[in-house]
Amino acid sequence: MKEINVQGASSLCTLGSDGEYNVQDSVSTSEDRICSSLSVKVTPELEKKYVHHVYDAIAPHFSSTRFAKWPKVASFLNTLPLGSLVLDAGCGNGKYLGLNPDCFFVGCDISATLIKICADRGNEVFVADAVNLPYRTGFSDAAISIAVLHHLSTEKRRKKAIEELVRVVKKGGLVLITVWAVEQEDKSLLTKWTPLNQKYVEEWIGPGSPRIRSPSSMALQSIPETEENRFLGEHGKDSKENLTERVWESMCLTSPSEDNSVISKDEKTIMDQQEYFVPWHLPYHRAEVSGASACALASGLAKKDDKKGAVVYNRYYHVFSEGELERLVSDMDNAVIVDRFFDKSNWCIIVEKTS
């Protein structure tokens, strides 16, 4: 167990073997804040499995579908002053890097596979976490975060990511943030997403920090196009790890109703639901290239859809309700929202750093 002593405090913040931070005999609010700050930077297993692992697996296919620039993002970048240094935090395949030839761009993303795609295209990029950006304070003139925050699984982590974006820009610098909205223009999309039930939400997505599970040792491997689920065939009895994953998975997911609509187990309406698994269909012929694995299939991280000839991965999303994104900024003393708008089923804000 790792101990973190805080000067001037009589209690102890510990990091347990399960990766969870605990405060013992706490009498110091300052220590609580330090422990909370450390905890928010520890990536929950939910994000590791259903964001990081997934995007590493689907990166080449994902990149091939991401080339169109959103007009309002392009407009924001094209109106920046000549010579501006711009950070794209969560740059994906780098489609916005270099969009304005009069600016300088740097990018980062949690997916090493996507970063390699960016680097191969000659972009200045490296792997970094949105809640712990490795840039000095005030280094850039502007920053963008396009479709990133909705992959963070707690309010504290989403708020921390915004604080980091504001921190790295100069005073007077602008930050553009976009996130998926609950209010989808195409309502039929909601029936294709799997909502997380209330028990799952309370355990992982609740108002406090999520419980941090032990890291998975699951390695991604290629899946031959014609291979059936050989992993299960070779292992008639599930290992303890795989059994645990299956039990956990069965607790997390809700099922389609008979009329093919999806409802949460606590009978929330679809519009009230904000936590989803959104599928990505990786064609069999792309699975070997991107490294999707039989182990992922066996553990429930992915499943096969023979009718569509694809390996289906679930990506975690927290979709934002109206006003939610603004509330994350409302109590920040060094930033103010200068614009907000709804664009292509996304809530968007532009934030200015004031001090």
TrEMBL record:
GO terms for cellular component: cytoplasm; nucleus. Keywords: Methyltransferase, Transferase. Residues 87-177 form the Methyltransferase type domain. It comes from the Eukaryota. Signal peptide: none annotated. InterPro entries: AlkB_tRNA_MeTrf/Diox, Methyltransf_11, SAM-dependent_MTases_sf. It holds the Pfam family Methyltransf_11. GO terms for molecular function: S-adenosylmethionine-dependent methyltransferase activity; tRNA (5-carboxymethyluridine(34)-5-O)-methyltransferase activity; tRNA binding. GO terms for biological process: tRNA methylation; tRNA wobble uridine modification. This is Methyltransferase type 11 domain-containing protein. It comes from Dipteronia dyeriana. The lineage of its organism: Eukaryota, Viridiplantae, Streptophyta, Embryophyta, Tracheophyta.
